[in-house]
Structures are given as C-alpha cells and as structure tokens.
Amino acid sequence: MTLQGWVSFKKHAAGFVYLASRRLAVPNNYKHVCLFSQSAANMAEEAKKLAAYAAVDNHIQVQQVLLPSTNGPCVLSLSLLAERVRQEKLNIVCVPTSFQARQLILQHGLTLSDLDRHPELDVAIDGADEVDKDLTLIKGGGGCLTQEKIVAGCAKHFVVIADYRKDSKALGQQWKKGVPVEVIPMAHVPVSRTIAKRFGGEANLRMAVSKAGPVVTDNSNFILDWKFEHAQNWKEVNTAIKMIPGVVETGLFVGMAERAYFGMEDGSVQVRDPAVN
C-alpha cells in the first residue's frame, strides 16, 4: 500500500474523539492544550501541532508511502510519524517534495523514496497558506508549489493540515501575499503583464531575502506573486494562467484536497470536508 499524504480517518483513534460538531478533541496524552495564555505566535504553533496530531493519527496505516512537505505543519508531522513508526513497527515509505523534506526524513530515520519507485501514493498530507470554504487552497509561500502539486496529484487521498489563521471563507481574506506562479525566468515580465491585464491586480517577481536578486526555485525558475483584487472562478483562472506561455505551475489547488484539519485556538481540531453539491 502506498501513502502520499498521511492518513485514513477513524471515528475513534489514538485518543481522538470525532464529535458531531465536526471537531476533534485533543489527544488525551497531549500536554500542550492550554493555548489561551500563550503569545499569538506560540498559539498558532501549538494549533499546528494539534492539526498534525489529528492527521497523523487518523490517516497513517500499517504499510504506506507518504509525501512529507516542506512547511511547518508537516515538519511537525514527521516527528509524530517517526514516533509511531518506532512504537508500532509501521512499514512507511516517505516521498519528499524538497531538499529540506529529504533531510528531515533521513534525520528521523524514516525510509526515503521517490516517484520513480512509488508513482502512486496512498495519502498526501500537506499544509497550505490559505484554505477556503470549498477546500480550494493557496500554496507556494515556501516556493515548492510545483513539486507539491505533482505529489498531491499522485496521491489517492490529499489531506491538509493548518492552524486557525489559514481558514477563510474566500481566498484572500487571510493570506495577503497573493497566488504564487512559477515561471520560466525569461518569461517573467510578459507573464506578469498578461496576468495583470487579464485578471486584474498585479503579479510581482518574488525577491530573495538572504541573497541579491529573485527567489530561484528547486527547478531553477522564478516565482511571481499575483495579488488579485477580487474573488474569481478559481478553476477557470487556474487553467487560464497555466495556458500562458512560460508558466510552469500555479499555487492554486482546486478540487484536490478531500479533507482539512484546522488546529483551533481553544485546543480543538476542526475538520472540513468538501461541500456536497
């Protein structure tokens, strides 16, 4: 069995109770549940841990292939996963989406693989910069949107973990940095102009912080951050942007996630499934 994200859901699993209100109680062996007295940054970090706990406990099975990501929640999940592998003797294989994820997998003593050897994954668990009411995601704040979308597309199940700050009714309410778009370097100016002309807003080249010049992805490309002005038909916009010559991939994940776990301020975990049309 192969796993890309990380979990299959059970009503009662490892100390979590699935409540009718669509929230999960904190695990009974988890000590960091008093979030109210903490700073905002620490509170968000603890909320991420709660979501990671829920996802790993509910979606990890005996023999799977996983896809750990590069973002904070999944870094937390790796340590939880490694603990379960040691305690329960699970046969887990991990497929990374970045150099950082690869190093963390090795650091935790987990089995490393790739899409050449495991092209089909059971579950993918990943974070997001923002999640709307329909489970449409903005991803790519860390610059690995193309790899993350490839792996999510190879998974039978794609699960998202995030804290309460990433939860929005509509994209753009919480995340103000725009939709990342990975582009071939020579095309960044014409692509930026085309996006702004067709969809409004502005698409700016992402500049690096610790070096001079733009951010360069693991694929040796540039990233544009499109700051849109209003809500869009995200499925149509995603397809249209990808058709612009020079675009590699967008950070819009439309119709891909099947469940999201949000660590909340009160120490609970809220679960969201796609709306049934």
Automatic annotation (TrEMBL):
It holds the Pfam family Rib_5-P_isom_A. It catalyses: aldehydo-D-ribose 5-phosphate = D-ribulose 5-phosphate. Gene3D superfamilies: 3.30.70.260, 3.40.50.1360. InterPro entries: NagB/RpiA_transferase-like, Ribose5P_isomerase_type_A. Belongs to the ribose 5-phosphate isomerase family. Its EC number is 5.3.1.6. The lineage of its organism: Eukaryota, Metazoa, Chordata, Craniata, Vertebrata. This is ribose-5-phosphate isomerase. The keyword Manganese does not apply. The keyword Acyltransferase does not apply.
